[in-house]
Amino acid sequence: MEAWDSFAADVHKGGKEMFKKRKILWSVGLGLFLLFSLAVIDSRIIQGVAEKGNEVYEQIRLLSEVFVLVRDNYVEPVDPQKLIYGACEGMVGKLDPFSQFMDPSAHQMMKSETEGKFGGLGIRIAIQEGRLTVVTPLPRTPAYELGILPGDKIMKIEGKDTKDITLSEAVKLLRGKPGTEVTISIFREGEKDLIDFTVTRAIVKIESVPDAKMLTDKIGYIELIEFSKETPDEFDKVWKKLKKQGMESLILDLRYNPGGLLATAVEICKNFIGDRKLIVYTQGRSEDQIIKFFAEKKARHEKIPLVILVNRGSASGSEIVAGCVQDWKRGIVLGEKTFGKASVQSLMPLSDGSGLRLTTAKYYTPSGRSIHDVGITPDIVVEVPREMMAELMKQREKIYGLSTEAEKEREKEKIKDPQIERAKEILLAQERFSEIEKGVEEIREGAEEGAEKEKEK
Predict the structure, then answer these.
(1) How confident is the model at residue 100 (pLDDT cuts 50, 70, 90)?
(2) How far does Cα 385 stand from its chain's mean position?
(3) Is pLDDT at 21 greater than 80 in this prediction?
């Protein structure tokens, strides 16, 4: 859901000093590392442990003792690899909802998702308050079509309780062969009973810009649902199309946008923010880990009136864009408070094909606001009841093969989107105010010209 920086571990070549450190580690019984993969041990890990002193030795030894006792004394034989993976999942799971240890199969699924095409339900998930929670449904997917909403808590998968489930386990249960079904039981705020959804898995192709159109003669609308590598080019393409159609103001819809690549979010900001202003910065554990991202000297579209739509399904990259525009007062942010997921996850491949998705930094807006766990509060709050939002989601789906009459009837039954309607009102008011200003300026210039002619006479 996020800007993941894949990188491989550095391997240092040791000499005598490293050999001594290896001997120290073996002397305190670090058999766990041998049992882990029976492969070459990363000398950087060994060096780091050795430098920490006896406290770390004792902690590692405790883990090794538990491993051996379970392996040798549990009532039934246990796969050692299963124990190791479980220990890794538990350790990383104690950090935050977004860090994750992935076994080789889960790691492969994660990589397939970052490539933009995967089989599943079409939802982004996280662990919140110990429960599997929907961050956002991806538009044009099975979950979206059924009306699954941000904030829905998945209490059961195929009748199995999800309490204390890991993200890796959840991914395995939810993903599957396209065309197969999976039933999930959801707790939704305001509902007394669980809601069961039977979802047919499908190949989910992530689109960056699924919709771009003119809402009036002058107001354009662009929907972004993902910040992928292709997003800037897709955005530029639809922008040129709308400008040719007369666009003079824009509604940028970031609702249900869970994020993606940090660099892409920065590029989208550069369309509206110039003067080399700060767009966003990331902060890790130390001051030297601050990374700042700046705009260019001139914004591509620096003057066009702008309204950005957000809701509780807007996270990460979409929060960066909204926060930047809000801080610099470049446009109006409208809708509902965003999700509050503004941290950087680095995707680290491990030696046996498994992977570690680790939170390594957090995002901050130009004014220094931390978005993580807080979210972006819109300039203008327009809340949409969950029932209405579910209906809006359904009616936005295209239905192919309808007759002309059926299509007209469907249009009549559609309800209006309150957030889009409010955004239109704001831009129309700005448009009218600009016309008045222009008229006043013309009157003033005419009066001055008349006065000059009188002087000449």
Answers:
(1) confident
(2) 23
(3) no
For 302-311, how does the pLDDT look when each residue is reduced to its tens digit (9 = 90+)?
889 999 999 9
**Catalytic residue numbers?**
316, 327, 341
User: pTM for this one?
Assistant: 0.68
Rounded CA separation 434/159 (Å): 58
- Summarised one tens digit per residue, pLDDT across range 61-82 is 888 899 999 999 999 999 999 9
Tell me the average pLDDT across 395-403.
56
Burial class (CB in 10 A: 0-12, 13-18, 19+), 286: exposed
At 319 the pLDDT is: 96
Q: Which two tokens stand for residue 317?
A: 């990259």
- Are the C-beta atoms of residues 219 and 424 closer than 8 Å to each other? yes
What pLDDT sits at residue 434?
A: 72
Paired residues of 357 in beta bridges: 100, 347
Most confident region among 80-89, 160-169, 264-273 by mean pLDDT: 264-273
Q: At 294, phi and psi to the nearest 5?
A: -115, 155
Domains of the chain (ranges plus CATH)? 16-78 (no CATH), 100-205 (2.30.42.10), 211-431 (3.90.226.10)
- Count CB neighbours of 369 within 10 A: 14
Mean pLDDT of the chain: 81
Instruction: Report the DSSP beta bridge partners of residue 100.
Output: 357
pLDDT tens per residue across span 102-147: 888 777 766 655 554 567 898 888 888 788 999 888 877 899 888 8
3-state secondary structure the chain: CCCCCCCCCCCCCCCHHHHHHHHHHHHCCCHHHHHHHCCCCCHHHHHHHHHHCHHHHHHHHHHHHHHHHHHHHCCCCCCHHHHHHHHHHHHHHCCCCCCEEECHHHHHHHHHHHCCEEEECCEEEEEECCEEEEEEECCCCHHHHHCCCCCCEEEEECCEECCCCCHHHHHHHHCCCCCCEEEEEEECCCCCCCEEEEEECEEEECCCCCEEEECCCCEEEEECCCECCCHHHHHHHHHHHHHHCCCCEEEEECCCCCCECHHHHHHHHCCCCCCCCEEEEEECCCHHHCEEEECCCCCCCCCCCEEEEECCCCCCHHHHHHHHHHHCCCCEEEECCCCCCCEEEEEEECCCCCEEEEEEEEEECCCCCECCCCCCCCCEECCCCHHHHHHHHHHCCCCCCCCHHHHHHHHHHCCCCHHHHHHHHHHHHHHHHHHHHHHHHHHHHHHHHHHHHHHHC
CA-closest candidate to residue 198, choices 143, 136, 139, 141: 143
